[in-house]
Structure of UDP-glucuronosyltransferase:
Amino acid sequence: MILKSIVIILILNSLCEAYKILLVFPVPGRSHAILGEGYVRHLLNDGHEVTYITPITMKNSHPKLRQIDVSTNFELMPTDILFNIKSIINNELNYKDSKFLLYANSDFANSAINHPNVQRLIQDSSEHFDVVIAEWLYTELYAGFSSVFNCPLIWSSSMEPDSMVLDLIDEALNPAYNPHILSDKLPPFSFFDRVNELWILVDTKIFKWRLRHRENIMFNTAFESSVAKRGRKLPPFNEVRYNGSLVLGNSHIASGAAVHLPYNYVPIGGYHINEIIDPLPTNLQKIMDDAKNGLIYFSMGSMLKSRSIPMEIKRGLLTVFSKLNQSVLWKFEEELPDLPKNVHIVPWAPQLGILAHPNCKLFITHGGLLSILESLHFAVPVIGIPMYGDQHLNINRAVEKGFGKRVDLNSEIATQMDIAIKEILNEPRFVQKLKEYSLIFHDRLNPPGKVLSYWVSHVIRTKGAPHLRSPGMLVPWYQKLYLDLAFLILVTLYISFKVLIKVITVILSFRSGINRIKKKLL
Ligand SMILES: *[C@@H]1O[C@H](CO)[C@@H](O)[C@H](O)[C@H]1NC(C)=O
Ligand SMILES: *[C@@H]1O[C@H](CO)[C@@H](O)[C@H](O)[C@H]1NC(C)=O
């Protein structure tokens, strides 16, 4: 028996080799760190050695985990200004504009790749990695790590697959029926929306192209010397950025749409949710257990600070909550005076533990994708107050699928919230739909963490998985659109037309010539 288990362990060990993996997740935001930590957890479980570049270091140490701290990156993110709810309500911040995100994120990335701790890592020519997994967020600068370590590159995308990320491994989605990630519209589109989607696709592409000099300089400055140290030459940024082997997407069909995906896009939405959920702190456990009529959990995530919500809106919401039979647990960073008996305020909330509790009946969220995936995982219906980024799209899809309601943040919010809460709690169709989509979310061949592990190893074992590469990557855009053919047809038509005109004038002038001669002769 013992011998048998030893043999089995030996076989398992030989099947899954331990690799050295570099995880690049420097985006200064809690939700991005949650995605990074998901990779750390699964890859350590598989026995790999993980080096993790992060602005939020993990407390639990592990002999095979090395963390590279880039927390000074937070200084670049003026959260109070960028995510100020008042400015969002007053439309002072244009979060629907990808151009702003493209510009700002290349700045964040530039500071991360030039961070002294990161430079120390890449300048050390004894360092070696089997694969680099980097978060893609509006910039491809992190691709340079794969050039330094001469190893394959895997992108991790935090959002539903959209044109910008698919363009890196295949091509953009057809804008006629695929909204861009910041869109507030779902297909079928009106004529105007369809044209607008096309315009945004083209406009974003042009803007990205205009950023190329700026990004080339950033790329070369950060990576040239460390590649030279290893006796190689840094390839051009424009080649490296399209050289990712795979995109692992934090997406799932249950929250997204059945879009056209290339072989090297693998959806692993839900991998960040640990099967073992930490027990709740005693005060929270008591609030949850005591909520006999059910509990509504309200959190606007970690970026938006509740204190930037205008006072009249806070008061209005509290009045609505005070009339409910349910308890309300509000993640909020400040004390509120005259708190109704059924409303509890916590500055920090262990979201998974709360959603997992059977008394949690409703989740009021900004609609970030992590929250939507968690609501599907734990089967809790949502009310979304979309604020920025992909939240509008996520919430609109939840509404379309029938397991969520949307409420907009404006002076009407309290009234709308009251209607939405009552509808979801009283009409069984929301919970019914949620159960259907939750089933879709869970009904998979393999859990997402396993899928993640498999594909990371597959890319390493197959030396960058060139067999998964879309043949479209070799074809220039004008050839894909057959613009060369269109040009040829236009030129041919033009020449034929010219020739025809020429022939007709010659014939006509020949005829009139003959006529003139005839007249003269007569
Ligand atoms: C592209 O990736 C492959 C596989 O990882 C690698 O061999 C090649 O050198 C890379 N090319 C560039 C230009 O980065
Ligand atoms: C609250 O509960 C009481 C007693 O169970 C019930 O009569 C009342 O209609 C409920 N109110 C709401 C708003 O659901």
Observations:
- The first helix runs from residue 2 to 15.
- Residues 325 surround 2-acetamido-2-deoxy-beta-D-glucopyranose (ligand 2) (CB under 6 Å).
- Residues 19-273+447-474 form a domain with the Rossmann fold fold (CATH 3.40.50.2000).
